[in-house]
Specification:
By secondary structure, the chain is an alpha/beta fold. The chain contains ten helices and ten strands. 44% of the residues lie in helices and 19% in strands. It has a five-stranded mixed β-sheet with strand order 3-2-1-4-5, sandwiched between helices. The protein has a five-stranded mixed β-sheet with strand order 8-7-6-9-10, with helices on both faces. The protein starts with a strand and ends in a 20-residue tail after the last helix.
Length: 336
């Protein structure tokens, strides 16, 4: 079975063709990073316009790279939630147009479930149930993956996501967008113990995250030092920030795993590419004897392959969309 997956939830226009979910025949990504870098972050209006310009060419190349035509495709999967509404609408409407013109089934895919599915591509032996941390610029969730299409969110951020904290702190430190990768590189040369940073907690919700206070603490530290004429060692601050975020993500995930009885752990989303996050999960899971699954760096960020993969499982579960399918900027994983 061949699935065409389309992803346009933020600033990557992506398309992929998968065979039976995990065999990826093509994976094409058109990124807008260089254009958004001058603004220090994603400008939604610009993102939507670029998706309009790029999506047709990206889909055509995905089909060409896979050696397939639309006639060979069994279904079209598309990200419909959550994300930037204008960006999502481009992908959803393009996919609806393809399906209406060709008679192919339309399969809606939740963006977070797509990130989770990236691990199936890299690790065919991974099977539900297990616990997955999904951490990115817009999401920080601890998810019980009960089945390929059934999820229960047991922990989530109450304010900023982990990736958002990385990027906003990086911007305050003077690093270009996207800042997370620059924090990671600088952290390799820094002393994480040079700064003591807060670890905010959510009272009464032991598995939930809060990164707003940490972000504010770093920004205030930078501003206060600048006002006093004191130069902050960015490498040390990067190491302290990365270490703190990594520890928080891992500690909360392990708490949930122990409480819920899971010894199989997966990590997904853009933040799963961070070396500090990968390192602390590898170390902790090895100590506890847990099985750990991490996606390759190429599948950590937004891509069409993860949507094609999850679309395959959604298709088998009978999930379909029609001409009334609409994009949604916010939607809980449990409400799909």
């Amino acid at each position: 079975m061949y699935i065409l997956g389309i992803e346009s939830s933020c600033d990557e226009t992506a398309a992929s063709v998968s065979e039976n979910g995990t065999n990826i025949l093509s994976n094409v990504i058109s990124t807008q990073i260089e254009e958004h870098r001058k603004y220090g972050g994603v400008v939604p209006e610009i993102a939507s316009r670029r998706h309009c310009e790029n999506i047709s060419g990206v889909v055509k190349k995905a089909l060409s790279d896979a050696g397939k035509t639309l006639d060979d495709i069994d279904a079209v999967a598309v990200t419909y939630a959550p994300g930037l509404i204008g960006a999502l609408l481009v992908g959803v409407n393009y996919a609806k147009g393809l399906c209406m013109a060709s008679g192919k089934p339309l399969v809606p895919v939740h963006h977070i479930s797509g990130h989770i599915a990236a691990n199936y591509i890299a690790h065919p032996t991974l099977k539900p149930p297990y616990l997955c941390l999904v951490a990115s610029g817009g999401h920080s969730h601890i998810v019980e993956v009960l089945d390929y299409t059934s999820f229960r969110v047991v922990g989530r951020t109450r304010d900023d996501a982990a990736g958002e904290c990385f990027d906003k702190c990086a911007r305050a430190m003077g690093f270009p967008y996207p800042g997370g990768v620059h924090i990671d590189k600088a952290a390799q040369k820094g002393d994480r113990n040079a700064f003591s940073l807060p670890r905010p907690k959510v009272t009464g919700s032991e598995f939930d995250f809060s990164f707003s206070g940490l972000k504010t603490a770093v920004i205030n530290l930078l501003h206060n030092s600048q006002q006093k004429g004191i130069e902050i060692n960015k490498e040390d601050l990067s190491a302290a920030l990365q270490g703190t975020i990594s520890d928080i993500l891992c500690e909360k995930t392990m708490l949930a795993a122990e409480a819920l009885g899971y010894n199989t752990i997966a990590v997904a989303g853009g933040v799963s590419a961070n070396s500090g996050v990968r390192g602390i999960f590898e170390k902790t899971c090895a100590e506890k004897g847990y099985s750990l699954y991490l996606p390759p760096l190429s599948l950590c960020g937004d891509n069409g392959a993860m949507i094609a993969c999850q679309g395959y499982f959604n298709f088998l579960a009978g999930q379909r969309g029609d001409e009334s399918l609409n994009a949604k900027a916010t939607l809980s994983l449990e409400d799909i």
